[in-house]
Design goal:
The complex is a heterodimer of chains A (117) and B (187). Chain A has six helices and no strands. Chain A is mainly α and 117 residues long. Chain B has two domains: 83 residues, no CATH class; 82 residues. With 187 residues, chain B is mostly helical. Classes of the chains: A mainly alpha (117), B mainly alpha (187).
């Protein structure tokens, strides 16, 4: 409608707002992976990129991972593998994350990493 | 475009919210920003994510429209709550000093100023297109001030009532045309 020569800062872009919302709305509820992501970030003072590297997940998909439900205790392996498969992540790393432990280094290039479906 | 998700979704799918979010969130937020241009994007984004989380708890089929309407309702509710809180805070004379909140308010202020500047520029541009003569401009000012009584218009512009009605009809036609043009530009 009206030309605006000033570029919009990336932090004000809609996708950035959605990412922040995804983290914000899941950080307070331990049913979501986002809660465990927030705890790990806070505990180890990680940036988003560091966190993605640490988990072996693409940085652009961390917000999606945050929205996933944490595995149920009685179906832990099944749920864990479903999440790991969706994000091509190492189940061992995710398991440590949702148990509140420091995740080991991801093993994306080994057979442990679950391939996306 | 409408996507359908969830017909064959099992009762518990830990990644369902992520899938809905990936499919619909950006498009729904874009629609909400068009619908509520003056509302904070963070608030709208919260409404979208909240709606996605709600839908993820059900195994019903979900479309973009369904997410949009749920998010719109949530945005309206949150907006109302936000406005009430601001009015309450203003009445109580509360000054926000917490750093993160202050940083957000600065960003909000910049965004609001930018929106106001754009709105003023848009009004100035469209006023020229709608009212071509001094009489029309005079009547347009009255219309914008909410005065649409033909007798009042006629008295203010020094016209007969019939002429005032004719000019007013012309203005309304042009306003309608400008609105249609603006809607086309947005979509």
């Amino acid at each position: 409608m009206i030309d605006d020569p000033t570029p919009v800062p990336p932090a004000l872009l809609p996708d950035a707002a959605l990412r922040r919302s995804a983290f914000r709305l899941t950080a307070g509820n331990s049913l979501f992976v986002g809660y465990w992501l927030a705890r790990l970030r806070e505990r180890e003072r990680l940036s988003e990129d560091d966190l993605a590297r640490r988990l072996g997940v693409l940085g652009g998909r961390l917000d999606e991972l945050a929205l996933c439900l944490a595995p149920r205790a009685d179906h832990f392996d099944h749920d864990l593998h479903a999440v790991a498969a969706a994000f091509a992540a190492d189940p061992a790393v995710l398991a440590a994350l949702v148990r509140g432990e420091s995740p080991p280094a991801p093993t994306r290039n080994t057979s442990k990493a679950v391939q996306p479906q | 475009m409408s996507y359908l998700v969830g017909m064959s979704t099992p009762p518990f799918d830990p990644t369902r919210a992520a899938e809905l979010y990936r499919l619909f969130a950006t498009a729904v937020l874009r629609r909400l920003r068009v619908k509520f241009p003056a509302t904070d994007t963070e608030l709208l984004a919260d409404a979208v994510v909240d709606a996605v989380l709600d839908f993820s708890a059900t195994s019903d089929e979900v479309s973009e429209s369904a997410v949009y309407f749920a998010a719109r309702y949530k945005a309206l509710t949150r907006n109302r709550t936000d406005c009430r809180r601001k009015i309450r805070d203003k009445k109580a004379g509360i000054i926000v000093t917490e750093s993160a909140a202050a940083a957000t308010s600065v960003l909000e202020e910049i965004a609001i100023r930018e929106q106001l500047r754009q709105r003023e520029a848009y009004l100035a541009r469209t006023s020229v297109a709608i009212a071509c003569t001094p009489v029309e401009r005079q009547l347009l000012d009255l219309v914008l001030a909410g005065k649409t009584d033909p007798a009042e218009m006629a008295a203010a512009a020094g016209l007969s009532e019939a002429d005032a009605v004719r000019v007013y009809a012309r203005l309304r036609k042009r306003i309608w045309r400008e609105r249609k043009l603006a809607a086309t530009e947005v979509t």
